[in-house]
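Late entry, written up from scratch paper. The run itself happened at the end of the previous shift, but nothing got recorded in the book at the time, so transcribing now.
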Amino acid sequence: MIVHWFRRDLRLTDNLGFQASAKAGTVLPLYILSSWKDTHPWTGPPRQAALCHSLGSLHRQLEARGSRLVLRTGSPLEVLEQLVLQSREAPEKERITAISTHLSPDPHGRAVDAALAGLCQRLGIDLHLYHDHTVYPSSHPALLTHQGTPYRVFTAFARAWLRLSPPTPKFFHGSLQPVPARYHSKIPPTLSHWNLPEFPELLPTGEPAARQRMNAFFREGIYQYASGRDYPAAEQTSRFSVDLRWGTLSIRELVILTRRAIDKAPNATARKSAFTFLKELIWREFYFAILWHWPEVLEHEFNPAYRKLPWLWPGRPIPPVFHGTAVHPREALERWCEGKTGFPIVDAAMRQLNATGFMHNRLRMIVAMFLTKDLHLDWRLGERYFMQHLADGDIAANNGGWQWCAGTGADAAPYFRIQNPWIQTARFDPDGEFIRGWVPELRHLPA
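Output as recorded:
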């Protein structure tokens, strides 16, 4: 029997590790819940709510095929070792002989992968690691320069990426062998598992809901994507980010469908729109490559030249260059977080984030540049706040986006480039529709 440890791949369609394990015989589908309580620096109620709903959906999908999801809590290595040792008391056909899982893209997960390899060797079982979070591994030779070094600029990376042929998605059909009763499970979790307050599920999550969203987007939305994606009141983005964060959709399938849409576009405008969406998927791949090759970006500026900037940080002494600042950094950060800066587009965006766990991409750039280039607050403060409040918080894209906006990252917007809140409002919320929806005290004003 093979344990498939689900991590950020909560689907059955085009799940390389799970499908290979199921094909080999009985598979024990496992998810290991983290044991932290109350607060966490890199997640919060919106994302954990999406996780809970996605796990419930996965459990129902497995049950429909004759299996079930086994849920445990604790340190992954300890849980896996306990399962393997427990299985040695079972009949031979119920013993665990291998573990399969998908490689992690972040430094912490990579350390766990390395330790897991050592654990499996010590226990005398096989380990099958699969690549899943991007279309191609970040270390793929074709995604390196002629000198064998990683790309630091998006355009060159995208050019190399586009020369590769995406792998064909693998669909899952048929039933599964039942999981032996001896492998008990917790019930699917709620936010109370982490002592978190309940958070409404405003966007249905889980593979079936994600696939409905995907089918609708490729049937209708992709050819209007370029013209509508920058207008927050229009809701013409794909909303796939939370699906990609938890793996309820396959990035390989999205790329294949996007390339088909480009090939089948009825006119040049539609083709350009579909290609614009493809470039957004490539940006995601680029940021994962940056994190893979330069994991230090989670702590430091990607560009070493900017690692000693005098960012403001609540609780730290204010550098002399900022003496006389009208608003204390602590108050400035609080106003930004609460959506009470007095800049309508910034406040509307932050209030939407706090209420829904979602923020439109155009607005993410506006509020990030406002925090870093107007308030001069450290980009790491915004990065953490987003991770704690976004349902789609993804470590690579979030870090890449914040460093890009702060002017410190790969291929970043220079320090002198800012998205002026007033100009952005005039261009992308000209009638004030989005602002009125989230800043009710301004509803009586003309645009």
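DSSP finds 17 helices and five strands in the chain.
(Scratch paper discarded after transcription.)
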